[in-house]
């Protein structure tokens, strides 16, 4: 089988914002829901260094069955193997039912039975009645035999464990408590008489097929200060020929902590063994927890989707936080590479801006991508961004405001450490002495304020409330702490200590933003012609330079030509417009309309979603909801667009039908070995297709286009592709060597909350 054209370099994603959406398998893989997909992830701690390997989305597996029958959202599933060929699956739904499904590997078919609770073969169900109900299968049907009371609020999680022939059940609740129950068989009749020296716990007794069983409350664990959402027993371990179940229970709470519980060896009393998590801050806590098969790593997933991983240092016995993958928990709307192609910045509907870069570890050849900064945490859904130089970007959100951010000194220093790049090379002749150290967001504010060294030095710790001279002393606006990083930061630091200061604010309606030669910025959104103008701003004075009216509806995307002479815009009105600068050598040279399509001359029949330029500025491409991709230019002239007086801008390609709404398009800045152009087209169904195009005189046959690859099921997004961007430099980020010129990298952003980076060997196309 031939090697795939596109190789997935990395996938950035996080867990869904729902309870207990993460599971750690006995094989070492972590499965978690991300949007409408399931992701598999393998974290390992090797030789005291963090190795993070992302395994593709679960769609690479073959679905053996689809269980349909619930009338509401399915909120919990569990399964157990009855034999080598039979699997019993239970699913609980908000439709107030639980269904049991029997899967047979012999037939590959599933049949269902409707019941009212969850767990097998002893079924435990916790609900909003604050009770745990136990069901046992009798004569082929599950019947409720017992109800366990004690919790005072909704039950959030129940989990079984088996030890020495007894069943242990842990339940947690919104009453902040955890209850551990023990279910065992009564083999002999207990004496009726009791002595004062014996204190017995209350037993709930029931019979199953003539056998007598009892349930007792083993312990009540109180240690969390907020709702407890998840409990998880340490997985059984194999010792020789025996399988042992450790009596260790992990719990996760909205108080932002995880606690590992266990009985003392001498007294048998359950106590807190380990507590990890956050203290303070303004974020919510954990939705669930899991433990690795060997018991040396624990994982929590938080309200905002972030994974929190700790590993136990086997030498010192201490639990330490570990580097873990991260990503957006909302649709990713836009992304941009830095001019040198060493990192990408993304924005999403989760109201965050995130920066990802390869981590180059000293003494280790493996390179992995990680989030190292969260420059902007906003109060509005983010929609667009563009880089303005090496360490400066502009972003726009639903608030209809553009904000300009510049990297602080602390980020530049840490980026140099993580990427193993010299600080002098990063900054060039620019000095960092005048840069702020970091940034912080005031309470109830949206603007990141710069924090300088003097601000940090003036912050003296207050010992008690009497030391506060005023409310401003008691409630400090700056929470920033300078970091010295040699590895990617943890979630706590990403939230608080990696913000970038805001240096400018531009007010106007917007959906997209872009930069021409680091001089001008444009922005537009409209439902009326008078509001559909393109606005040009100076990135030196940050003053509005010009308004360019042409379109009647929202401008969906814009792109400056690589030579900086032209501005291309596409719109919801199904047309494109091309603007030429009067004096390209002047920063203030005004743009005038050079060419455009109208309703009468438009080739596209639906919204034009995306556009891009070839690296030589001779051609530009448009993609539309009508499934068409078209390349435009001065056909046959060989001149750059706008430099051939008297020549009109017409289609230079045949119409490419990509089979689905083409929501994103990008032209690779480097030619293929046969001197053809390489294009990436993103589709509404989540696929990304690669096409080669070369100009031909005869376009009737459509032979100017050739498809050279596309993402397979496990590589594709599961929802609309929102943005595609090629790396502006050849090679793979973080790698070196002459052989890297054979590679190019493509970054994609999707409505499925995922950002992907693909490696493509352009020399082999």
From TrEMBL:
> What metabolic or biological pathway is this protein involved in?
tRNA modification; 5-methoxycarbonylmethyl-2-thiouridine-tRNA biosynthesis
Which SUPFAM superfamilies does the UniProt record give? Quinoprotein alcohol dehydrogenase-like, WD40 repeat-like
**Keyword Nucleus, does the record have it?**
yes
Keyword Nucleotide-binding, does the record have it? no
Query: Which keywords does this Swiss-Prot/TrEMBL entry list?
Result: Cytoplasm, Nucleus, Repeat, tRNA processing, WD repeat
- Alphabetized Gene3D superfamilies for the sequence: YVTN repeat-like/Quinoprotein amine dehydrogenase (2.130.10.10)
Q: Which PANTHER family match?
A: ELONGATOR COMPLEX PROTEIN 2
| Name the UniProt record assigns to this protein | Elongator complex protein 2
Q: Which organism is it from?
A: Cyprinus carpio (Common carp)
